[in-house]
């Protein structure tokens, strides 16, 4: 990754961060994406990101890596679109289309994705005619390259609806959103707690509200009722799924507010806008367009409520429960909960704010000579380090806190005193605290505070730094959950790059080890899912079949992360967060095996009826046979998806469907002859 001086000139790689150029001069797209993420995560300037992108584009072209060029171009297009620099993005869009054609990608998923990105950029630039042609090409391509329940198809319909809305064809926009809703609902393992389903309901509500007013009052009231139903459903999904901490909750609240305002419920609209405004201020800042627009809507709603004699109230009686999401003036009684006005906040956001407002000033004041040497962030054990924390997980090891990492030399000099000063920081912050510490997070096992870098990683992994590449047996002793805990979270500051360098070592699993693990996972997938599950069901041994499903699911989840490469996507965390991590990974663009997360959840739901006959029936009794047939069918579907991905990645040229027999083909890619890496 390129670091940039203030004048925008390259100053060489940032210490501790990955470079996208390999030693042999080839371009590494995965490391390019990781470097870009690091820039955005580090709050470095937009100029840094643009220079990095343009330099990467030039380097990929120099390396004659067309796939790398296309990856960078798509990121450049997205960057310019997100900054409102639509004219700058237009030549990049045309370049991406020409390159994709030159690469012969027409008729592939990559071509569909390129068309979607291009059309969206054209729409943002108000090139509506060109955008519509590209969207229609993308739809035709998607019908050939994507499955009917692929969420990228839903996103395509959603984007096309926005084009129709922008060009005064609201009815067609509503139809496209209804198609999108049908797709995301059908593909969801739990539509009542699915973020994409909620967002589509909100979009539908807004599209209905934007339809021209009809002279028929009865028909207009029916449209308003439909809009309110969609807006209310979106809020229900956020609450059922405990998704209120997600920034998109503000959009759902604002959409609900708009539906209430259109229906004459001004007081409820004001309450929704107030709650949305607090979330926008927290996540996007008061200088954002979203904040300005919502503030204007709130002002109108407050004025209308006053004129109508309506009291200000939250979206419903549950809003602000347990102090989450409540806002002054929404009718909540602040005296009932001392935290009633605190903003909903994830552990990572709380840690960053606590560092910026309390930790960083303390270090600059008391340790000025070390301010450019101390790393800060939040990494390690705990749901907040993965970004998976919610209201339920805050009963332990949650509250203001962050990690400070020092080199061995610095720790010996100031470690003890710095820990004392850290502990003297305010124990309550932004309405949270003091931090609840469980027995497992005290003393030497503390999760926040001051650490020597080697000690920190040793406390998690048993190693002060990652094993060498020529020690695969040591890598294989490190399970994925352990590696996930050592490489998760966020680094807020690392002036020396020493922490990032050590951390990157654990992220960089050697390819030989990764291929060996992929082979092992294929072995378990085939034995548990394709072999022993069926045999256990035929024996009527529901318990054994249940355990086979469990082993199959764990192996598949691990394989998804290994195929996508932990260097780029991280490691699979421990079992509690397996599906949270899978859902998150599946939602990323260009994720390999993205449909598998939903398939696995469906398999787990079916396993109850398949293995034990369903609720109320004895093992193997009524209801078991149809479910067992569906279960084994879905298991085979997942295995076929895995085989297709292995072939697409060039890891095998065999079409053998029993995945055990694919292991030799995978292991042929292992360069080392160390027997620990090969199956017998």
From TrEMBL:
InterPro entries registered for this protein in UniProt: DUF4037, TPR-like_helical_dom_sf
SUPFAM superfamilies: TPR-like (SSF48452)
Domain DUF4037, chain residue ranges per copy: 475-578
Keywords, comma-separated and alphabetical: Repeat, TPR repeat
Coiled-coil annotated residue ranges, if any: none
Pfam family, one: DUF4037
Region annotated Disordered, chain positions: 1-23, 302-346
Source domain of life: Bacteria
Protein name: TPR repeat-containing protein
């Amino acid at each position: 990754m390129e670091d940039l001086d203030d004048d925008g000139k390259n100053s060489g790689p940032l210490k501790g961060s990955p470079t996208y150029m390999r030693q042999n001069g080839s371009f590494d797209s995965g490391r390019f994406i990781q470097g870009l993420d690091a820039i955005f995560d580090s709050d470095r300037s937009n100029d840094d990101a643009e220079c990095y992108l343009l330099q990467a584009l030039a380097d990929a072209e120099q390396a004659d890596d067309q796939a790398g060029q296309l990856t960078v171009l798509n990121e450049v297009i997205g960057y310019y679109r997100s900054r409102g620099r639509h004219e700058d993005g237009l030549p990049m869009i045309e370049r991406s289309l020409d390159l994709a054609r030159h690469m012969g990608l027409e008729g592939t998923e990559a071509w569909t994705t390129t068309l979607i990105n291009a059309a969206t950029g054209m729409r943002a630039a108000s090139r509506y005619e060109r955008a519509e042609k590209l969207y229609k090409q993308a739809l035709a391509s998607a019908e050939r390259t994507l499955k009917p329940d692929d969420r990228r198809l839903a996103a395509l319909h959603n984007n096309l609806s926005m084009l129709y809305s922008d060009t005064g064809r609201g009815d067609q926009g509503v139809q496209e959103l209804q198609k999108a809703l049908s797709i995301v609902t059908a593909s969801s393992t739990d539509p009542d707690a699915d973020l994409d389903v909620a967002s589509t309901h909100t979009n539908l509500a807004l599209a209905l509200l934007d339809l021209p007013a009809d002279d028929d009052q009865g028909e207009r009231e029916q449209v308003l009722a439909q809009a309110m139903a969609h807006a209310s459903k979106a809020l229900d999904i956020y609450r059922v799924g405990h998704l209120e901490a997600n920034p998109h909750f503000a959009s759902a609240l604002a959409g609900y507010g708009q539906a209430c305002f259109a229906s004459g419920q001004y007081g409820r609209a004001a309450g929704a806008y107030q709650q949305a405004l607090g979330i926008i201020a927290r996540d996007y800042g008061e200088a954002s367009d979203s904040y300005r627009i919502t503030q204007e809507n709130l002002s109108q709603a407050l004025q209308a409520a006053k004129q109508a004699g309506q009291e200000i109230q939250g979206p419903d009686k549950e809003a602000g429960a347990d102090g989450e999401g409540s806002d002054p003036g929404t009718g909540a009684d602040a005296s009932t909960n001392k935290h009633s006005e605190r903003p909903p906040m994830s552990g990572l956001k709380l840690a960053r704010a606590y560092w910026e407002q309390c930790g960083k000033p303390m270090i600059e004041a008391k340790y000025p000579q070390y301010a450019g040497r101390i790393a800060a962030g939040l990494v390690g054990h705990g749901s907040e380090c993965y970004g998976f924390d919610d209201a339920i997980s805050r009963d332990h090891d949650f509250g203001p806190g962050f990690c400070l990492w020092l080199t061995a030399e610095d720790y010996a000099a100031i470690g003890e005193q710095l820990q004392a000063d850290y502990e003297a920081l305010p124990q309550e912050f932004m309405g949270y605290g003091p931090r609840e510490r469980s027995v497992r997070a005290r003393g030497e096992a503390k999760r926040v505070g001051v650490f020597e870098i080697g000690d920190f990683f040793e406390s998690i992994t048993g190693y002060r730094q990652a094993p060498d590449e020529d020690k695969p047996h040591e890598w294989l002793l490190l399970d994925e959950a352990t590696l996930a805990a050592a490489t998760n979270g966020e680094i807020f500051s690392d002036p020396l790059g020493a922490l990032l360098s050590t951390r990157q070592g654990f992220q960089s699993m050697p390819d030989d080890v990764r291929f060996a693990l992929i082979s092992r996972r294929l072995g378990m997938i085939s034995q548990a899912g394709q072999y022993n599950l069926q045999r256990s069901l035929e024996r009527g041994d529901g318990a054994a079949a249940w355990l086979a499903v469990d082993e199959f699911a764990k192996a598949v989840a691990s394989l998804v992360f290994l195929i996508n490469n932990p260097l780029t996507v991280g490691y699979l965390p421990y079992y509690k967060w397996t599906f949270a991590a899978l859902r998150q990974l599946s939602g990323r663009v260009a994720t390999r095996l993205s449909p598998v997360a939903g398939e696995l959840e469906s398999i787990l739901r079916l396993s109850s009826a398949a293995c034990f006959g369903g609720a109320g029936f004895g093992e193997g009794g009524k209801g078991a046979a149809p479910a067992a047939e569906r279960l084994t069918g879905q298991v085979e579907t997942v295995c076929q998806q895995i085989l297709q991905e292995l072939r697409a990645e060039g890891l095998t040229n065999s079409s053998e469907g029993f995945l055990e027999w694919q292991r030799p083909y995978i292991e042929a890619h292992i360069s080392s002859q160390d027997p620990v890496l090969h199956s017998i």
